[in-house]
Amino acid sequence: MKIGVKVFYESDIPYIRKIADSLDFVETMAVIGRKYHRFSDLGLPFVVHNMHGRWGVNFADPDKVRKNTASLNHSIAVADELGAKKIIVHPGRFSHDLCSEEQVVDFLSDFKDKRILIENMPYSSEGTIHIGYSFEGMRYLLKNTKRRMLLDFAHGSESAAWRGERPLPFIKRLMTLRPAHFHMSDTRLKTIRDMHLHLREGTLPLKEYRNLLPKNAWITLEVDHNPWKTEHDIEFLKS
β-strand 25-30 against 46-50: which pairing, if any? Predict the structure, then answer.
């Protein structure tokens, strides 16, 4: 098992240094206009996460091909710079009638980089429905792009909650898609939104999720940058 943390910018380096001895890797966003070369000084492996809706990126939107292309080309460049072997992307959302799963497939088919992984999503946020929230939707994307999956446990749990389902059976179903990487955080399911809480601060069945992880799993903790709490999260995953 390999455990890392999610960060965004070089300003997060002090947080990384405080827990570096407990980390196997770091996952960073690749934001256009930001530099990432100082991360190389940490001596840790890296995973890269592409910009998403927070930055106006939406692979499902045919009107945003130029912006989407710039974001993914930037992620590839950052991954090359840091020697990252994985690039994580969000598939997008149905922000208007022209957005579609087919557009996501067409867009990603133009990129031959085998490091790209597609992350499963919650059902909805900010009033729009995500692509990749369902088992069938993820299976379609993975099959038609010939990509592998990143399984976000909180996203999957939130998707199940939206549909009135118990989260564990849905997560077990997603596991049959053979994820290549995992995101782990806690949340409170009654809120049906991604809270990025430290482990055991919410209501997810984390012990059951932990038992589903393969021995060689790579797990990114998507939590607040509290070093003491993060150390306890790592201990929980390894216990």
Answer: parallel
DSSP H or E run through 220: strand 218-221
Give residue for tokens 């939707």.
137
How sure is the predictor about 183, in pLDDT bands with cuts at 50, 70 and 90? very high
Six token digits for residue 23? 């980390």
With 80 as the cut, is the pLDDT of residue 82 above it?
Answer: yes
User: How do residues 25-49 score in pLDDT, each as one tens digit?
Assistant: 999 999 999 999 999 999 999 999 9
Q: Whats the size of the chain, residue-wise?
A: 239
Name the architecture of domain 2-238: Alpha-Beta Barrel (3.20)
Whether the full predicted model's pTM is greater than 0.85, yes or no, is yes
Nearest to 152 by CA among 68, 89, 235: 89
- For the chain, domain boundaries: 2-238
Half-sphere exposure of residue 19: CA atoms within 13 angstroms, side-chain side: 25
Distance spanning both ends of the chain, measured CA to CA: 11
- In angstroms, the CA 60 to CA 68 distance is 9
